[in-house]
Amino acid sequence: MRTSLNVPGEVLDAFDETWQNEELESRSRAVREAMQEYIERHTGLEGLEGTVVAALAFDYEHTLVIGELHTIQHEFESVIETTHHMHHGEWCLETVFCQGPAPRVRELVYQLRDFDAVGRVNVLFLQPEHAPTANE
Questions:
Q1: pTM above 0.90, yes or no
Q2: Is there a smaller number of Cβ atoms within 10 Å at the N or the C end of the chain?
């Protein structure tokens, strides 16, 4: 199936350089791999149950989103144990350490990912009571 995407030029340039350096056969192959990794990451997050301990690391453009991020952090204070924040020009790196019900932590991740000014949100689960296997 063919599809089209709108991607910033610098992202496409970096993506092309990466898959070519890895000697993949084509951009299509690299996109399929990236999509599969995204699906696996999402289904792994969806499969968690019970109480989890997690570290959420995300970067964002400070001036565009700081107020909204503070609001969300207050809304999720029942699962956020502590945060660590670092400035780098207009961009910031933040790590939020969470403990609580998997659905509530999952909701926090999805809300953070919904901001255009947030570059990416990486999640590391430290001690899930139920860790999904590759077959789940």
A1: no
A2: N
pLDDT tens-digit readout, 88-107? 988 999 999 999 999 999 99
What is the three-state SS of the chain?
CCCCCCCCHHHHHHHHHHHHHCCCCCHHHHHHHHHHHHHHHHHHHHHCCCEEEEEEEEEEEHHHHHHHHHHHHHHCCCCEEEEEEEEECCEEEEEEEEEEEHHHHHHHHHHHHCCCCEEEEEEEECCCCCCCCCCC
CATH of the domain at 67: 3.30.70.1150
- 59 shares its domain with 27: no
